[in-house]
Amino acid sequence: MMNKISIKDLNLYYGNGANHALHGINLDIPARQVTALIGPSGCGKSTLLRCLNRMNDLIEGVKIDGLVTLDEQDIYQNVDVASLRIKVGMVFQKANPFPMSIYDNIAYGLRAQGVTDKKTLNEVVERSLRSAALWDEVKDRLKSPAFGLSGGQQQRLCIARTIAMEPDVILMDEPTSALDPIATKKIEDLIQTLKQKYTIVIVTHSMQQARRISDRTAFFLMGDLVEHNNTNILFSTPADDRTRGYVNGDFG
Amino acid sequence: MQSASIDTTAVPATGTILPQSGRRRDWKEQFFKILFLLAAIIGVLSLAVIAYFIFQESLPAFAEAGVSGIVTGTEWLPPALYGILPMIVASLASTIGAVAIGVPVALLTAIFIAEVAPKWLANIIRPAVELLAGIPSVVYGFFGLIIIVPMIQEWFNVPAGNTVLAGMLVLAVMILPTVIAVSETSLRAVPKTYKEGSLALGASPMFTIFKLLVPAARSGILTGVILGIARALGETMAIIMVMGNAPAMPGSILEPARTLTANIALEMSYASGVHASALYATGIVLLVFIMMLNGTLLYLNREKAK
Ligand SMILES: Nc1ncnc2c1ncn2[C@@H]1O[C@H](COP(=O)(O)OP(=O)(O)OP(=O)(O)O)[C@@H](O)[C@H]1O
Ligand SMILES: [Mg+2]
Q: Which residue spans traverse the membrane (chain B) (predicted)?
């Protein structure tokens, strides 16, 4: 099994060292699988996720040491952040379509890279929307504002927007936490299809969701990676008492 | 609108605590409603009174010279001719020039403070810009007189630097604070999630600013621009000091000219009869321009609410 991403002894501090948020994390993320990050609120799941596409660079006073590699390449050394973020796409907790048409939302990332050819853009828009299982619902109103879509559709639009960049990895931070069960089901099904092509890392608060959709699960507690394993094993026979307590719903 | 349903005469004679306190609350509600209404009426009434009196006073001039004689007349020679087209042109030219120069500078500054500059630098520039807004216009006039006017005289080799161009430059500086402050506020009001989403797609910060953040803040920025235009159009003192004030039609921006506001301010103290009335007519024209701007502003705000 090839590792797409490898995290070694990763420490992260917020506020110029005041808040040690990640404690020596070691985690391998295999290619074309779904890796779920679980743990109680504030344990550092989002923080770790944001290390993988360097979104933490935007936060003032963040200090990072350790090693994060994508395809064996250190993403914090000699790497163009923009191309890293194209390879490692991100879907946010709250769907954040841009204030423009559905079409322009999908084309946005390509246009940012200087793609202007109408035919290429049309193709990519259609292909991405199909991949995100949204095409049939929006094909007649590509020019209308993205805000007119339902919450679940908006989230799939954001997934389509990410797919349009042909990434290797898709990071998702609680992508269904603001959605109803039906919209959630659609996205979970989508994730199952997407993993054939993409490596997916998903943060979730729902242990059922982690169980349903992930191949591997990593359990975090107060900045520590307590345990990570094959999802079935982690949930059925956790090695650590704290993991057992959490997956049994004793705390969190 | 529940005051109608709370009918105090319907309170039972036995009188429980509740209806009584209800009655007191009702009285207070009425008191404040009337207070608010009075305050609002003062504003609206002033507008009506101003508009009415300027209009009233301008009637003799319109009667003597005709609306077209005043608005399209090119000669201002009281008490014979009352054409203010040169002033309309001067006002519009100086305002358009000020916007053409000032708005790009202001927009870039607003973007710089809101998105690009490190915090400490933004915290220096922002108060400086705010200070600019508080400087009295006569001081801008000094600045124009001492720096801009001689500069134009020298660079363009004209007999006097008091020109339309000088007015444009001074006004450009004067509208900066308004346009910067309003634009920056609207840029800051753009949800952070847009920026994050854009950067996460690998878009550069500059692409994000110009293709996402600025368009998202568009209606707010336009509001700032319109407020700036209104300020430029209404400016009087600084313009009188730097634009030369000749009431003739300017042939180029390197000639002196007199704006609508300057025309009123310069001659009101000694004008009488139809001449004075013609100055009120000048005010009416100015008022029409300002009303058109406000109409645009209203329209933009409605767009924003959508
Ligand atoms: N921008 C920030 N600045 C400072 N501290 C932060 C910042 N973001 C997160 N933290 C801190 O880092 C720790 C981990 O936060 P993080 O958001 O990664 O948790 P999480 O596991 O994603 O929680 P949740 O499940 O609530 O989303 C918390 O203690 C939090 O207060
Ligand atoms: Mg989180």
A: 31-55, 84-117, 129-152, 164-182, 221-244, 278-300
Sign of CA dihedral A82, A85, A91, A92: negative
pLDDT tens digits for range A20-71: 999 999 999 999 999 999 999 999 999 999 999 999 999 999 999 999 999 9
Q: Domain count for chain B, please give it.
A: 1
How far apart are the C-alpha atoms of B191 and B216, rounded to whole Å? 9
Q: Is there a contact between B200 and A53 (Cβ–Cβ < 8 Å)?
A: yes
Whether A13 is in the pocket of ligand 1, judged by its Cβ within 6 Å, is no
The pTM of this model reads: 0.85
Q: Where are the beta strands (DSSP E) in A71-110?
A: 73-74, 88-91
Structural domain boundaries enclosing A203: 3-247
Q: A62 CB less than 6 Å from ligand 1? A: no
pLDDT digits (tens, 9 = 90+) for A72-123: 999 999 899 999 999 999 999 999 999 999 999 999 999 999 999 999 999 9
CB-nearest to A98 from B197, B199, B202 is B197
pLDDT exceeds 90 at position A235: yes
CATH number at residue A160: 3.40.50.300
From ligand 2's centre to the CA of B17, what distance in Å? Answer: 51
Domain count for chain A, please give it.
1
ipTM: 0.94
pLDDT of residue B1: 40
Could you identify the residue written with the tokens 């009087």?
A: B236
Evaluate whether residue B36 is within a structural domain: no
CA proximity to A199, closest of A38, A110, A102, A90: A90
Contact A83 B212 (CB under 8 A): no
Best CA proximity match to A102, nearest among A74, A121, A86:
A121
Q: Which parts of chain B sit beneath pLDDT 70?
A: 1-23, 304-306
Q: Tell whether A104 is covered by a domain.
A: yes
Identify whether A252 is part of a domain: no
- Say what the pLDDT of residue B294 is: 87
Residue A138 lies in a domain: yes
Domain enclosing residue B222, as ranges: 70-305
Residue B151's CATH number: 1.10.3720.10
Task: Say whether A120 sits in a helix, a strand or coil.
Answer: helix
| Chain A residues touching B204 at Cβ < 8 A | 82, 112
A52 to chain B, minimum CA–CA distance in Å? 11
Nearest CB to A85 within list B191, B194, B202: B202
Is B6 inside any structural domain? no
CA distance B190 to B221: 12
